[in-house]
């Protein structure tokens, strides 16, 4: 199948904030680690892998699964695959130099005579607290056979739905599900993103931040895959935020992004383009469990083509997050430009995503992720017209068998329709389904030091 000395009190608060922002981003943290066995023991029961939430702990898991797919990466036949995968994550106890790492990867063997493939995601974050300054350096690298799907590994059917990929440059408090990009066919690719963020309080309620990042996407073009469109992306932002009261914060942000496409292939004209935006931000905490964040503002887009002029669009982002003891939910909407996901030379997308998870009877865990995006050409007279409609849905149910062993069943649907496909490289079109069944061994978190 082809498929983040004893300082004064305010400084101590900053250290805690720096540590918190380095916790891995999880939209649907597995609640199993907090649940007791239904017998006389305080040991938690596992319903699958979850990222560590306590400093100084390491969590790992190993999964074996079987998946069945129809029209996966455009293959119209029914294919089955045997998968072995593993997950590893830890976070240190250091307050001045907090560090965390998350890894997920594995290998899939097809039973229909098609080639096996490998996949992995690795994300690392290093924080440095220096007096009133906080620095966070993040790096994320992945190798995938196609567009990333919901789940930590980015591959459907391997049992990690409900654990969102770590996104460099974001903080734990933003845990909205990632938007879904345009789906490609079977196209092995390597992606790498590195970012540096800096934050410093100006007053007791007002702080300044800046961030810069550089990302690349390269298609391997091996003998079994179709080449996509390589891209380089540079971005930077400056922001200021002010805490109005215990529940409300407001601020402003300026951002700049530039995308280039080295070695454009398949005859696709892919000129470089840049986008700038100025946005106003507001966040509100309704209750201890429910909060929202919104930002919006004008954007200016420029394409490096003769005779092109600056065009205008809107940048908007809205997220709502609920985090309870036994259930979690997150919803997000984004309207912004992007580099085109390896399919087109830049695009404008509207994306809506939703994810939720719940623990039932201490041994059951259910997760659902859904995303829809409409992707169209950049607002430029030189752009070829196209519109892609992408829908992805993932559901997973897990049950603990014994303390560290669980079983799961998952289902992933992806559907994509397009207009103007001639302007695209390696575009998936149609409806595909992936069903997976497997076992996950995930013992209790291992202590790495004293908290």
| Beta-strand content bin | over 45%
Gyration radius, rounded: 22 Å
Tally the structural domains: 1
- Residue stretches low in confidence (pLDDT < 50, at least 5 long) are 1-43, 167-175
So how many helices? 1
Q: What's the helix-strand series? A: HEEEEEEEEEEEEEEEEEEE
CATH architecture: Beta Barrel
Instruction: Tell me, briefly, the overall form.
Output: globular
For the sheet with most strands, the description reads:
18 strands, antiparallel, barrel
Number of strands: 19
Commentary on this structure:
The chain has about 450 residues and is mainly beta. It has one domain: Porin (Beta Barrel). About 5% of the residues lie in helices and about 55% in strands. The protein has one helix and 19 strands. The chain has an 18-stranded antiparallel beta barrel. The longest helix is centred in the N-terminal third of the chain and has 13 residues, at about 10-20. The radius of gyration is 22 Å and the shape is globular. The model is unreliable at about 1-45 and about 165-175 (pLDDT under 50).
Quickly describe the structure.
With 451 residues, this protein is mainly beta. The protein has one helix spanning 9-21, and strands at 57-72, 75-91, 99-110, 117-130, 133-144, 189-201, 206-219, 231-243, 248-260, 273-285, 290-303, 311-323, 327-338, 347-360, 364-376, 387-402, 405-419, 430-441, 446-447. The termini are far apart.
Question: Tags for this entry?
Answer:
451 residues, Porin
List the helices and strands and how they pair.
Layout lengths: L8 H13 L35 E16 L2 E17 L7 E12 L6 E14 L2 E12 L44 E13 L4 E14 L11 E13 L4 E13 L12 E13 L4 E14 L7 E13 L3 E12 L8 E14 L3 E13 L10 E16 L2 E15 L10 E12 L4 E2 L4
Antiparallel strand pairs: 1-2, 1-18, 1-19, 2-3, 3-4, 4-5, 5-6, 6-7, 7-8, 8-9, 9-10, 10-11, 11-12, 12-13, 13-14, 14-15, 15-16, 16-17, 17-18
């Amino acid at each position: 199948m082809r498929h983040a000395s004893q300082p004064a009190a305010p400084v101590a608060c900053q250290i805690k904030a720096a540590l918190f922002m380095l916790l891995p981003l999880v939209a649907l943290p597995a609640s199993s680690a907090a649940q007791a066995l239904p017998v006389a023991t305080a040991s938690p029961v596992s319903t699958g892998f979850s990222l560590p939430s306590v400093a100084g702990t390491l969590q790992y898991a190993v999964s074996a699964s079987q998946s069945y797919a129809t029209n996966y990466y455009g293959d119209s036949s029914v294919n089955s695959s045997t998968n072995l995968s593993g997950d590893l994550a830890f976070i240190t106890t250091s307050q001045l130099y907090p560090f965390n790492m998350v890894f997920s990867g594995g290998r899939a063997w097809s039973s229909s005579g098609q080639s096996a493939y490998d996949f992995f995601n690795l994300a690392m974050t290093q924080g440095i607290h220096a007096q009133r300054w906080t620095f966070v350096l993040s790096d994320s690298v992945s190798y995938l056979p196609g567009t990333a799907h919901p789940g930590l590994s980015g591959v459907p059917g391997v049992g990690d739905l409900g654990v969102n990929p770590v996104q460099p440059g974001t903080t734990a408090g933003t845990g909205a599900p990632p938007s879904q990009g345009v789906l490609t066919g079977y196209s092995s690719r390597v992606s790498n993103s590195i970012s540096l963020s800096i934050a410093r309080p100006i007053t007791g309620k007002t702080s300044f931040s800046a961030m810069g990042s550089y990302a690349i996407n390269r298609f391997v073009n091996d003998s079994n895959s179709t080449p996509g469109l390589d891209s380089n992306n540079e971005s930077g932002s400056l922001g200021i935020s002010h805490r109005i009261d215990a529940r409300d914060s407001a601020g402003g942000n300026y951002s700049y992004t530039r995308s280039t496409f080295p070695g454009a292939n398949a005859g696709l004209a892919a000129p470089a383009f840049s986008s700038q935006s100025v946005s106003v931000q507001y966040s509100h905490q309704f209750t201890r469990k429910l909060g929202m964040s919104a930002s919006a503002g004008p954007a200016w887009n420029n394409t490096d083509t003769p005779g092109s002029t600056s065009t205008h669009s809107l940048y908007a982002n809205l997220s709502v997050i609920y985090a309870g003891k036994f259930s979690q939910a997150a919803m997000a909407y984004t309207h912004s430009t992007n580099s085109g996901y390896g399919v087109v030379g830049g695009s404008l997308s509207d994306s809506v995503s939703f994810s939720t998870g719940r623990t039932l009877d201490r041994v059951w865990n259910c997760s659902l992720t859904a995303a829809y995006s409409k992707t169209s050409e950049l607002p430029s007279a030189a752009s070829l017209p196209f519109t892609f409609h992408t829908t992805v849905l993932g559901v997973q149910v897990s049950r603990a068998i014994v303390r560290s062993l669980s079983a799961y069943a998952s289902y992933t649907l992806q559907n994509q329709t397009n207009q103007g496909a001639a302007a695209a490289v390696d575009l998936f079109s149609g409806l595909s389904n992936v069903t997976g069944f497997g076992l996950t061994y995930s013992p209790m978190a291992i202590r790495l030091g004293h908290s």
